[in-house]
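Annotated sample (chain length 502).
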Amino acid sequence: MIKYFLYIRKSTDEDDRQVLSLEAQETELLELAQKERLDVIEIFKESQTAKEPGRKIFNQMLEKMERDEAQGILAWHPDRLARNSVDGGKIIFLIDSGKILSLKFPTFWFEPTPQGKFMLNIAFGQSKYFVDNLSENVKRGLRQKVRRGEWPGWAPIGYLNNFKTHTVIPDPERFRLVKKLFELYSIGNYSLKDLQNQITKIGLLSKAKKVLSISIIQHTLENPFYYGLMKYNKELHQGKHKPMITKKLFEECQKVLRDRARPIKKFVKEYAFRGLLKCDECGCSITSEIQKGHTYYRCTKKRIPCSQPYIREENLAEQISKILQKVSLNRAWAEKMTSHLDKEKESNQQAELAFAQKLKSQIEDCEEKLDKLLDAHLESVIFKDEYTAKKQKILNQKVEISEKLRDFEQKPNHWLELCRNFILSAQQAKIIALHRNFFAKRNFLKKIGSNPLLRDKKILFNPRGAWKILANFNSILRAEGAAQPQHPIWLCGQDSNLQPND
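Output written by the structure step:
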């Protein structure tokens, strides 16, 4: 009497999927064995796909059959035994060699004859075709989903999958925390390990409530998904999900990642005014050195002999403070100017609408270019590598314009905001001039002008734009003792040449 192995299989090892499949197969097959009086000596259960060869339990069963422990297999359908050519070939070979004498299926007939083996081969081929075709259909569906701007996989950290609408939505608990991760790293003061410690302190953990690994943090920082684009199959696509950060913040993080990938330099003492000035006599840079506990600045004298002397750092700081005071605004002026700016807001509505429409037109142009680029790729006018590179460039351009439009809609009266910032900066100039923060003095000096020179221990410097106008009028008022003008808004008027260069 032929002895049988009962083999049952489902395609996944997840408990919540196909949960009744093994039980249902076993019940039906045992009823068939009882009905046909088959001698089942062992039951093999497996939860693994048959698309690839290498199923452990299936191979154990075949090894036992080669040792003649059984001569037949009872299964629900041939596709339970094999969905690939290797496993199907093993079954056929064992039939040819007489190791398998019988195969029993409730829904398929088999006899160990040439016709039976032919039909079994067809069944195995159909099973392979089904799984291959299913894979292609799934891939096609995923590609179409990406084209619609929908992410086809699990949502990255900070987002959740909405299984009802099949979209990606912000995670109410972790969205702001992941955004904080980008903001912290863009500062440049944190290594990835330090960043891991910081975000753990503020409560950013994985879904399993574990600390995020360094690799996950780095992958998150490099993922364009967070500023609105999706990278799928090495190609960027426009996403419909809500962006977490701006493209500018994302690029700042990429810059920090690139800089931190370079070899770490040894600590070097920073000098506040090194590299800021040029020698007016020979054009060389002004360098610094410490002598007897004091910092001195001098010309490097690398080109030609130069007669310029040393100057103490405190002397330079004092001169810069006087320059900053020349471009400062007192409180009364600032209040008058801001009051005038508030009145100007009402008269700029038409210009704002025109500017917004221009940005929208540029976005439409980008979309039109993307359509033409896709047509060219489909018609084989351009190769895929060229198509991918150009598409990425246009998509990034579209994102930048969209961010400009969003910022403009959130912050109307753009030039008025520039003027307001200028007024606040001019008020800040006096504060910086009076405080002993040499680095703040240097940064503000670079902000209001460029190319400062040093000659005979004196700084030669001219502010630019509105700062120059403010400095000139401050000089006139001090020289003549004149009263404050009634309408000091001329400092940052609507003439583009007078816009503050902030």
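Annotation: The two ends are 94 Å apart (CA to CA).
Annotation: The mean pLDDT is 82.
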